[in-house]
């Protein structure tokens, strides 16, 4: 819990990882990708404050102790949600798997929520595996990478019948939070990995599931915003938005936050620090201190109330994940800033 | 950036004249997504003019920048430089990128995107480019309209000729021209970049909101890309 100026903030970090990208874990013949991937993440870290930068060696593999300290001791996080990224084609034991995350979570009861993943191209076997992982780790969410290249397949779509079967099974299993990575393209080469039209389709067909679009569809937040105005069960995952912009590009951070507030509103924005790319400490403290600037350039945008910040930093995610919040931290009945985006 | 430094140090000799022309040509090549020149973004890592041969090196913010955008930038650089009178050959090399070998080879052979990535790409990049141009028109609409401080009803009646001349207006015109949309002084200021139809008053609020968020998105991306490029190549001094 974070406390500032007499206000208490229950912090749910909606996007965290425990990864191993050290050379010992690189698949033979795939070293350039394994190395390129982690260096790319490391460059993202460069967008945070200089005093929070790590050496590449520290960044490739960090200890459990360091993670616990960075999140829960210094980082103000109450509960963190693991989002897995397998990448077994480049990393022998995977990059950041449900199993490794889950094992860490079990050593620290009450601190983590362990999300899993699926890929509809795995067919019947994959459905079984999903069910096993969900039961084993108590997952209430999954992280999906629709752009992942595999064999001759150039990614998959949430519109497909196969994906619908998996979403059906998620619903049966009580996995109601579908985090979809919509970010920069790698593979497939000529498809837009950040095309959000398939989320639009699935969100309409599965109104009881929540779809959290991670990185808000960057680099195309406009498509995401238009889509989200029409789908009440679509949420903005703020990982990268806070970490990548708040310090490095404060004006654009303000504008992106202003747009998200304009089109989606304060009840549908979810904080995620994206550790270990960025530590939560400076993000939580910075966001609580932050306010929409004055001036003509920002005049279209709403100011952010303390209530809005509490929702974004934790209460919204707590609602999606049925996290019990101490009574003193429950949201007060105060008017919210309604989105004024125009549905078409 | 030694080579670039040399370019700035111009004298009136013929080779320097060519070097200047090459830099001007590079300044016309855009990152299709950010709609900004490669020269402003710091993507030109080196430029050497040797007689009538030009060697260009390009660098991007990450090892995994989207290969389709990267291909467009390398191909456009090649086209821009080889179109200069006095340039007989060019070598354009993207560096430090996972698909650099395939892109560089494909562009040098004028092979197109699909042939350069056999088995991994199924369509050429024309529609991607058009999509980005439509976004550039929307973002440009916000840049131009914001300065006008006109009331909404007036905005729907304005033509391009009504707008005070300036860089933003010319940029908007040029993107509309590339898409084959109307761009003369008599053309409506506000049009749907997909259909070319004027915006009706009833759709105005949504259109202006779309224009604004598209610009915000584009500029925020540009900020992320610049920040990452600086983190990746910290020793280099760029404006």
Provide a brief overview of the structure:
The complex is a heterodimer of chains A (344) and B (239). Chain A has 344 residues and is α/β, with parallel strands linked by helices.
* Oligomeric state of the chains in view: heterodimer
Q: Can you name the CATH architecture of the largest domain in chain B?
A: 2-Layer Sandwich
Overall SS class of chain A: alpha/beta
What portion of residues of chain B is helical?
Answer: 40-55%
Task: Identify the notable features of this structure and list them briefly.
heterodimer, A: 344 residues, alpha/beta, 3-stranded parallel sheet, B: 239 residues, mainly alpha, GMP Synthetase, Chain A, domain 3, 2 domains, 3-stranded mixed sheet, two-stranded antiparallel sheet, globular, disordered N terminus
Describe the fold and architecture.
The complex is a heterodimer of chains A (344) and B (239). Chain A is an alpha/beta fold and 344 residues long. In chain A, 38% of the residues lie in helices and 12% in strands. Chain A has helices at residues 31-45, 56-60, 64-73, 98-107, 123-137, 161-173, 197-205, 221-230, 241-246, 250-263, 280-289, 306-320, and strands at residues 2-4, 7-9, 12-16, 79-82, 112-114, 141-144, 149-150, 153-154, 177-181, 210-214, 234-237, 269-270. In chain A, the strands form four sheets. In chain A, strands 6-9-10-11-12 form a five-stranded parallel beta sheet. In chain A, strand 7 and strand 8 form a beta hairpin. The longest helix of chain A has 15 residues, at 31-45. Chain B is mainly α. Chain B has two domains: 2-123, 2-Layer Sandwich (GMP Synthetase, Chain A, domain 3); 126-225, no CATH class. In chain B, 52% of the residues lie in helices and 10% in strands. Chain B has ten helices and five strands; from the N terminus they run ααββαββαβαααααα. In chain B, strands 3-4-5 form a three-stranded mixed beta sheet. In chain B, strands 1-2 form a two-stranded antiparallel sheet. In chain B, helix 4 runs parallel beside helix 5. Chain B is globular. Chain B starts with a helix and ends in a 7-residue tail after the last helix.
């Amino acid at each position: 819990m974070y406390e500032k100026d007499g206000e208490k903030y229950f912090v749910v970090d909606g996007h965290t990882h425990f990864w191993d990208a050290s050379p010992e874990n690189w698949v033979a013949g795939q070293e350039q990708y394994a190395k390129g991937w982690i260096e790319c993440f490391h460059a993202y870290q460069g967008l945070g404050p200089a005093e929070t930068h790590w050496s590449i060696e520290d960044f490739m593999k960090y200890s459990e102790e360091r993670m616990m300290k960075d999140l829960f001791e210094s980082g103000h996080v109450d509960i963190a949600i693991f989002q897995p990224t397998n990448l077994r084609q480049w990393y022998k034991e995977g990059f950041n798997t449900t199993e490794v995350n889950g094992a860490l979570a079990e050593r620290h009861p009450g601190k983590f929520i362990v999300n899993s993943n699926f890929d509809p191209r795995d067919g019947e076997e994959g459905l079984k595996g999903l069910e096993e992982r969900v039961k084993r780790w108590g997952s209430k969410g999954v992280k999906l990478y629709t752009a992942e290249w595999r064999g001759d397949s150039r990614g998959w779509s949430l519109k497909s019948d196969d994906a619908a079967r998996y979403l059906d099974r998620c619903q049966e299993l009580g996995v109601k939070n579908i985090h979809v990575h919509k970010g920069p393209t790698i593979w497939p080469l000529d498809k837009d990995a950040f095309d959000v039209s398939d989320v639009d389709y699935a969100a309409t067909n599965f109104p009881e599931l929540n779809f959290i679009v991670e990185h808000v569809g960057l680099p195309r937040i406009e498509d995401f915003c238009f889509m989200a105005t029409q789908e009440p069960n679509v949420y903005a995952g703020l990982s990268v938005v806070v970490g990548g912009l708040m310090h490095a590009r404060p004006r654009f951070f303000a504008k992106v936050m202003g747009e998200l507030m304009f089109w989606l509103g304060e009840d549908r924005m979810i904080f995620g620090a994206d550790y270990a790319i960025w530590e939560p400490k400076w993000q939580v403290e910075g966001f609580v201190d932050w306010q929409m600037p004055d001036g003509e350039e920002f005049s279209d945008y709403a100011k952010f109330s303390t209530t809005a910040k509490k929702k974004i930093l934790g209460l919204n995610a707590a609602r999606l994940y049925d996290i019990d919040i101490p009574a003193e931290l429950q949201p007060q009945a105060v008017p919210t800033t309604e989105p004024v985006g125009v549905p078409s | 950036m030694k080579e670039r430094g040399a370019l700035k140090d111009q004298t009136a000799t013929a080779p320097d004249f060519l070097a200047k022309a090459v830099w001007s040509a590079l300044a016309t090549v855009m990152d299709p997504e950010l709609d900004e020149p490669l020269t402003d973004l710091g993507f030109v890592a080196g430029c050497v003019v040797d007689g009538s041969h030009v060697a260009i090196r390009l660098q991007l913010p990450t090892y995994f920048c989207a290969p389709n955008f990267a291909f467009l930038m390398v191909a456009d650089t090649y086209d821009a430089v080889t179109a200069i009178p006095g340039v007989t050959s060019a070598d354009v090399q993207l560096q430090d990128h996972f698909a650099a070998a395939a892109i560089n080879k494909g562009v040098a052979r004028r092979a197109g995107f699909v042939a350069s990535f056999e088995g991994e790409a199924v369509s050429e990049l024309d529609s991607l480019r058009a999509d980005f141009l439509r976004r550039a028109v929307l973002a440009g609409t916000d840049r131009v309209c914001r300065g006008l401080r006109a009331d909404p009803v007036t905005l729907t009646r304005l033509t391009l000729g009504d707008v005070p001349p300036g860089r933003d207006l010319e940029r908007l015109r040029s993107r509309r021209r590339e898409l084959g949309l109307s761009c003369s002084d008599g053309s409506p200021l506000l049009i749907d970049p997909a259909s070319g139809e004027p915006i009706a008053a009833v759709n105005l609020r949504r259109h202006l909101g779309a224009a604004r968020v598209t610009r915000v998105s584009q500029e925020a991306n540009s900020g992320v890309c610049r920040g990452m490029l600086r983190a990746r190549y910290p020793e280099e001094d760029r404006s």
